[in-house]
Amino acid sequence: MKRDELDVASGSLYDRLGRAEGITRLVDKVMAAHLANPVVAPRFQNVKDFDHTKKMACDFFCAGAGGPEQYGGKDMLAAHRGMNISEQEYLAVTDDIMGALQSEKIDPATQKDVLAIIYALKGDIIRQ
After folding, report:
1. 85 occurs within a structural domain
2. Cβ-count burial of 58 within 10 angstroms (0-12 exposed, 13-18 middle, 19+ buried)?
3. Which of 69, 76, 95, 111 fits as disulfide partner to 62, beta carbons 3.0 to 4.6 Å?
4. Model confidence over 7-54: pLDDT tens digits?
5. Other residues' Cβ atoms within 10 Å of the Cβ of residue 54
6. What's the rounded Cα separation, in Å, for the pair 3 and 123?
7. Does the pTM exceed 0.70?
8. 43 lies in which domain range?
9. What is the CATH number of the domain that holds 54?
10. CA-based diameter of the chain, in Å?
11. Alpha-carbon Rg of the chain, whole angstroms?
């Protein structure tokens, strides 16, 4: 096994995603994809402070991936309560995230780890 492969296999999810810099790039790509995605773009039309939304997404992703960043926002259930997000919207968001991971050339094992987290949060997001 090459050194790079060992680092990917043994590093934290935070490290494997490129730490704060890599996660910020991912969030930028995900948010751009959301705005271009006709299934979820309407959800973002009334967001007053998009930069704040992106920062909160970065902090959430970094902290959840094992990084040192602190996330001071709402948990997933509280953040999505009252939104009544459909299965179709949830899958569209998942596709946007996976597309960003692929465009950043994140290895398949790490992509699967992120997908597992996305699915673990599903119950806190859909139909709330």
Report:
1. yes
2. buried
3. 69
4. 555 699 999 999 999 999 999 999 999 999 999 999 999 899 999 999
5. 16
6. 38
7. yes
8. 18-125
9. 1.10.490.10
10. 49
11. 15
